[in-house]
Amino acid sequence: MLFSIYCTDSYAQKDSTLTIVSSDTILHIQDSILQKQDTTQAKKKKTFENRVDYSATDSIVTDLTEKKVYLYNQAKIKYGDINLEGGAVNISFETKELEAQGIADSNKNITQNPVFKQKEDEYKAKLIKYNFDNKKGFITGVFTKEGDGYLHGQKIKKVNDSTMYISKGMFTTCEAEEPHFALNFMKAKVVPKDKIVTGPAWFSIMGIPMPLALPFGYFPFTSEQKSGFLLPTYGYAANRGYYLRNIGWYFAINNYVDLALQGDIYTNGSLAANAKTNYAKRYKYTGSIEARFEDNKTGIKDTKTFAQQKDFSLKWSHQQDSKANPYSNFSASVNLVSATYNQYATNASEYFNNTTTSSIAYSTRFGESVSFTANLGESYNINTGDISLDLPSVSLSTSQFYPFRSKKQKGEPHWWEDITVSYRSSLTNTINTKDSILFTKEVAKTMKNGWQHSIPISSSIKVLKYFTWTNSISYTERWYTNSIAKKYNSETGLIDKDTIFGFIANRDASFSSSLTTRIYGVFNFRHGIIKAFRHVINPSISFNFTPDFSSPSLGFYNFYVDKDGKKVYYSKTEDGLFGSPPSGKSGVVNFSVGNNLEMKVKHGILNFFAKDKDKDTVTEPDKVVLLESLNFSSGYDLAKDSVNWRPLSINARTTLFKKLQINFTASMTPYVMDSVGGLTNQFLITKEHRLFKRQNSQWDFNLSWQFSQKKAAKESTSTKAPVSPTEQTYSPYVNPNEILGNNVDFSIPWSLNLSLTYSRLSSYVVAIAGYQTNKSATFNVTGDVNLTNKWKVGFTTGYDFINKEYTYTSIDFYRDLHCWEMRMNWIPFGYRQGWNFTIAVKASMLQDLKYQMQDSFQNRATY
């Protein structure tokens, strides 16, 4: 049944009748007083502001004398944004109140307990009383969700839409009606979607009080940022003493920027400070800046075991929103660290990373054809101490344009109308030095700069329909601010090199022409499993000519006289960033042939054992790639008077059985080598009766398998293990699960990844008159498995068969404890040997409710 009530004050007159209706009876109410309307009354006052819709399954009783409606069995009330469901509900139109409770079944068990919903708030209770007028309510035995947690209360008084008071309640993040853990309190004040403030509170597990109490409790629910204290982690490190890590304060400055200040304190005097800020502006940019300083002291002071090391790191990340400007972009990725910073890192990826890179880039476009980029770059090798800086690197380029093509094209263009021209310019200033002298005066001597301009001109035309003829001319000019001068020093017997400051320019040009085509060969078979072979050949011949720019008359090269009185020529800008014009004339004819071989076989042969082969209705043959590429290349230099032939290069690549990747490269010379490894003008075929001799070769094999059981048909039991924003963002210490990560998916029972990598590099060494071979072979295993529907294990390991040692090995354990979780990471051997164990509440709002133990490699290491 469904009825609507919209009442006036005249409803309160006497001589009313009482009607009881069932589910199949039409309610008919007669009220003689209601039919006698007072014509002098101009306006009637409404009892309710909104329409009341109600229904029930068993019966609806309307008492006109008491001005009440009684609903029984699956009763439903809708009034504005309020929805109420329950077993038994009654509404009073005089007091504007409703009362709802459950009903007893045949076994005297209470069912259909009332559920009260208003907007996003929902309350499950045993008894609910609510006043429509003042919006006050009284709830007994409540169970409701607040934020990421659940609120239980014996009695709740709802003052208005923004305030409630609770008596004898508890708060938990466990959704069970009988929670596995909770914080209990005698009284509390609740501001929905904002906070809960309690009096004295105590912790309980499975309803058993624990000896853990708080003088008061405060639980914020707002989605807005709030400033507050960041709780630290504590423990003991064998070589640094007791510690507090990540203690600090979070500042929610405004909607655009925040700040977190944290520090580490050890009883042996070790200190660390960390500051990080995030900033964002919608549709403009986002970014973060983090600076960290560490004063690490290990061992006992005034003993040989004592060591002190100060380290720092600076990280900056900035991304521009694509909506901000479609033609310009600014980005930054800065990662600056000290030489020993990564030795103290707990993150495996940081610990094994020996090179850091940074880049700050800006790019824009002028019109439709001109592009501009500027970049500040840094590369630092922690092991060697080598550091390279680009301060800055700028480039300007234009897109290709057709200078001889008319704006109004008619018919097919002539060959000269297809000539394209473009311009490219690069300005670079670099510093390549050691970290030990980076901030000294000596670093100025390592600075190099230059400006290069290049103008490529090219055209491509079809010849005899099947050939493509491409011709190009390249002009390059380089500008430098210094050059060098060399002189033989007769006293020392060495060559003195001086730097001459002043503008200097050099230039060169080259010409190239190439002719390419593609040949297809198909061999079909009428019978048998093999249906066809397809062979594609890509022959190419090209000619590259470069004049001799080493003539002293051009001014690019100079010479000095050595001890034997011979002139030795050198380039004045041989140390320049963009090099020098080439010395000596070169005219090289290059030959290359590329091959691709495929085979078509009868459909179904490759997946004969597939489970669903009976459902396969495809009749087209299957394609099998036998050789993805097999390339041969060589060349002949017309400008040389001897040793004209270039080495024969061979490159091959293929994948067998969709698993085994094979790569092969080799370089072979047709000339005889002398005693120092140089090439003579004598062919091998005349002395050793063979065409080529292998200079070097390399084989690479990579075999990989991915196995996993399909997801379970039942609903996924994927467990998301949230990490609080502050912990994930500001803590330099990682989550204890390295393999499984934060999201643990139980819907995939198991997965296994196997890989086998083998590499063999062989090079001819003159000193031993033979080949020296370097080999490596590594077998890696990574995977995870569900031991039960609550236990999961992840692992990664490997073995190097050449060096006969295990690679980095790590094992993760995860246990789903419903509203809690247990995580453990174990590194059984190696330098990073140790373990990390955590039991914590899943909900991020109670992230600090956890227990941690660890035996880190840092607790034992002395650097």
In summary, what is this structure?
With 863 residues, the chain is mainly beta. Helix content is 2%, strand content 58%.
Please tell me about this protein's structure.
With 863 residues, the protein is mainly beta. Among the domains are: 1-135, lipopolysaccharide transport protein A fold (Sandwich), CATH 2.60.450; 464-643, no CATH class; 647-859, no CATH class. It is built from four helices and 57 strands. The strands form six sheets. The chain has a 31-stranded antiparallel sheet that branches. A six-stranded antiparallel beta barrel has the order 6-7-12-13-11-10. It is elongated, with a radius of gyration of 41 Å. The two termini are 80 Å apart. Mean pLDDT is 82; it is low at 1-45, 609-614 and 714-735.
* Residue-averaged pLDDT: 82
Structural class: mainly beta
Please compute the radius of gyration using only Cα atoms: 41 Å
Count of beta strands: 57
Helix content: under 10%
Multimer state: single chain
Q: Give the N-to-C terminal Cα separation.
A: 80 Å
Largest sheet: 31 strands, antiparallel
As a percent range, the share of strand residues is: over 45%
List the total number of helices. Answer: 4
Global geometry: elongated
* pLDDT < 50 runs, ≥5 residues: 1-45, 609-614, 714-735
List the keywords.
single chain; 863 residues; mainly beta; lipopolysaccharide transport protein A fold; 31-stranded antiparallel beta sheet; six-stranded antiparallel β-barrel; 4 helices; 58% strand; elongated; disordered N terminus
Topology:
Layout: E1 3-5, E2 18-22, H1 32-35, E3 52-55, E4 59-63, E5 68-79, E6 82-92, E7 97-101, E8 103-104, E9 110-111, E10 115-118, E11 121-124, E12 127-131, E13 137-146, E14 149-160, E15 163-172, E16 181-191, E17 195-198, E18 201-205, E19 208-214, E20 217-220, E21 228-230, E22 233-237, E23 241-251, E24 259-266, E25 271-281, E26 285-298, E27 307-320, E28 329-337, H2 348-351, E29 355-366, E30 370-381, E31 386-398, E32 420-421, E33 424-434, E34 447-463, E35 467-489, E36 494-516, E37 519-524, E38 530-546, E39 557-561, E40 567-571, E41 586-601, E42 622-637, E43 648-656, E44 660-669, E45 671-673, E46 679-683, H3 684-687, E47 693-708, E48 719-720, H4 725-730, E49 743-744, E50 750-765, E51 770-786, E52 791-800, E53 805-806, E54 810-817, E55 820-827, E56 834-841, E57 850-855
